[in-house]
Amino acid sequence: MRPPVTPRERSTPEPTPARDGASTPAGGPETASQSSSPSSSESSSPAHGFGTDLSDLPPAWPGRRALALPGVPLLVALALWAYAVRHTDVSRLDDYGLVSALHPTFWAGLAVLTAGFWFTVRDAHRPAAWSAAYVLGLLVMERATQAVLYPTPLYAWAWKHEAVIDHLLTAGGLQTADQVGDMAVYDQWPGFFAAQAALQRLLGVDSAAMFMAWWPLVSSLMLLLPLLLIYRTFTEDRRLIWTAVWLFYVANWVGQDYFSPQSVAYALHVGVLAVVLRRFGRSAVRSGQPRQAVWTVVITVMIVAIVISHQLTPGMLAVCLLALCLSRRYRDWVPVVTTVVIFLAWCLTAALPFLSAAMPDMIRSIGDVGANVETGYGATPTGAGAIATSWAARLLSGSVLLLAAVGVLRQRVLRHRALPLLLVAAAPLPMFAASSYGSEMIFRVLLFMLPGAAFFAAAALLPEVRTLAADAAVREAGNRRTSGPSWARRRGAGTWVPLAALLGTTLAFVPAYSGKDRINYFPPQEVALVRQLFEQAPEGSLVVAANRNYPDAYADYWSVDHYWFLDDGRSHVDRIVRQPAATLARDMAGVERPGRAYFLLTQGQLANSEMNGQLDRAQLERIQRSVAASPRFRLVAENGAGWLYVLKQSGGAER
Description:
By secondary structure, the protein is mainly alpha-helical. It has 33 helices and five strands. A hairpin with a 2-residue loop joins strand 4 (633-639) and strand 5 (642-647). Helix 5 runs antiparallel to helix 11 (215-234). The longest helix is centred in the middle third of the chain and has 27 residues, at 384-410. It is globular and about 95 Å long.
């Protein structure tokens, strides 16, 4: 691959291809027609005006072995993964989630996969298909493992979204807050749910639960093409591109890839950025207006899909596009104006009922940065496993951001040529002050920074990038100690230190991503217990539970009310702990026939309460025993995953 030729260096003849085997002329096909003025580098097409010279990386697979050897670690890693999956028991998860349950061969397979990827991707003679194969192997090991191991889908919120789809299919249309209460917010951003309802009918399945366990893998694959397009905008060196893709996936632990509107909206967000970065630079605009109009239509469709599906993503997209306008290469205001106009139009029409009610709280939260790191009752990881998981996630994100800072500082060429990507990475930071977003804004900012941060983090792991002419000048001067790789760089720190960093981040992903599976996994017994409840609950019934962390928590939400007592003030929770049966019976009274009042306590609720610093297991089990002993309650069903009681409507003496 040919490194870029800067304006002052274009007079330097350099017909010899670089050692990585690329044959594209320096500066790309647009070089000949560009002006030699200093500003021409700013207006050149980023897709063609920049290559990197990482030629001091020696071949990792020399000789005839080069064709077959890169596939050996990949096959070994997948074989170890398959063995681990067959010998992992998830029936009893502890506070470390899947981390402690996994068979040791899983960790060995992940280490082999990472090492194989590193020695393959850094070899200039290997086709990019090998790097792609390793990334797909990574996605299988880190995103498909849970789908294979767990017999039921993860995450209470995924089950909630399945209930919204079921309601949309049942009701046959959107409904207001008068009909479905605070769940009407989903009817005001229905894009994802309407699409999934159509998919469900197309596939002929009874429920989205049939496929939503695989959604993390699907949504991760949706990101692959736009990521490649973004990174290829600023470099043609596949080593930098694929290392950035790898780091993006291992640093994306935030967990927004589950069955949710934000997973699709985020993929569309990255897709819009890819189109804008490649097709809306100055040189692309000058290449022809008809073609530009086509891409404007493309991003408009994508923006509409984002706006009607998710509340936060359009705002993030707008600030990223606005940041691009700070660069001289992207002064086309069409994308940002299109985003803002469509976003405002939706907010002032379909989403107005929700925003009218939520606006006072949104205004009060502006500038409340502390809410993003708030701790206390229900917001503090409790127990060794929860704390270890929290620190693993922090260290993983901190390591990638630190690597990104190192990449920005040491890669001078990238810092200049990939400035738009750096601006996109920094753009979400002001959103910290805009809203706490339910104490989740810190995670969302990290997620939206990640495409740019992963690129510069990858640059930190690779040798210093040089322009072609600068590299030629060094060779002409005979300074081999600078231009040629030393033995230490070929076989020492230049190989093993980056590999250790890559391996550390890859392994840290597992506890960061699946360390809370004790909360997020609902065994079949728990699913069966909850479904038994909703199969018999008449319209107008009330379901009381400790919290909403159980499957189908929102089933029939249009006809059944819900009350989660741990959402109440601490004083009322303390009253329930002191006098469980009496307090709950008073809270559940008043349900009119034919409705009934049910009390549900499951393992998922116990895990969520314990690990998030609310009530511990002893307190919740005391509540259950009090309800079981009270004559005002009758046991409906129980199994190894929980208990279901109904409040007797005939009354009776309370014990």
